[in-house]
Specification:
By secondary structure, the protein is an alpha/beta fold. Helix content is 40%, strand content 21%.
Length: 201
């Protein structure tokens, strides 16, 4: 029997996290020995930890037009239908692999250093072998000055970190379809389907 490959997905309600969820779900579809832990954070004064099973239903059921434009490339009725279909398919996959998906709620102070420490502490204690998360571009002045959680994790982590910035519309369309497909790993001489960076430490 294969040993579990433990993956941590950091998820909130942001657009980049939506892409990270889809990416992680496709990994789950194609890795029979994968165990996925979906981690969400809540503010806490004392830094205590707890668990809660929420699935991915925390994503907006009535998404804003801006979210729809950024995620689906449009905000009309068809785009919203596709958005709901993606959420439905993801929940179905999570349900089929129910024993391989767990949900962890971590309470910590809402600042980048403390969040990074909390995620890395949990990942280390639970033998996580890959961390997946979404991130916004660091092309803004604020991003360059203050950095980001993803950047902090990449600098501090000895565990590989995959950062998902955006998934192309045609990639989401193939995911939404009923046919199972494989992720094409990005490399120098192939078309980049997924904008990611992965480092070790």
């Amino acid at each position: 029997m294969d040993v579990d490959f433990n993956v941590l997905l950091y998820a909130d309600e942001s657009q980049p996290a939506f892409f990270a969820v889809v990416y992680s779900t496709i990994l789950l579809m194609n890795m029979p020995n994968m165990h996925l832990t979906v981690v969400q954070l809540k503010q806490s004064k004392d830094g205590s930890m707890g668990t809660e099973s929420d699935g991915i239903n925390s994503w907006p059921l009535s998404p804003t037009s801006d979210l729809m434009e950024n995620v689906m490339g449009g905000s009309n009725t068809t785009d919203k239908t596709k958005y709901y279909e993606i959420l439905t398919k993801t929940n179905e996959i999570f349900s089929k692999r129910d024993l391989d998906v767990s949900h962890q709620l971590i309470y910590c102070n809402p600042n980048i250093p403390d969040v990074a420490d909390a995620l890395l502490e949990y990942a280390t204690k639970n033998s996580i072998e890959l961390i997946v998360m979404g991130t916004k571009s660091l092309a803004t002045l604020e991003g360059l000055i203050f950095g980001s959680l993803a950047h902090t994790l990449q600098n501090r982590s000895e565990i590989p970190v995959t950062v998902v910035q955006k998934l192309p519309k045609d990639f989401l369309e193939r995911y939404r379809s009923k046919h199972k497909h494989k992720i094409v790993p990005p490399c120098g001489n192939s078309r980049l389907l997924i904008k990611i960076r992965q480092i070790n430490g």
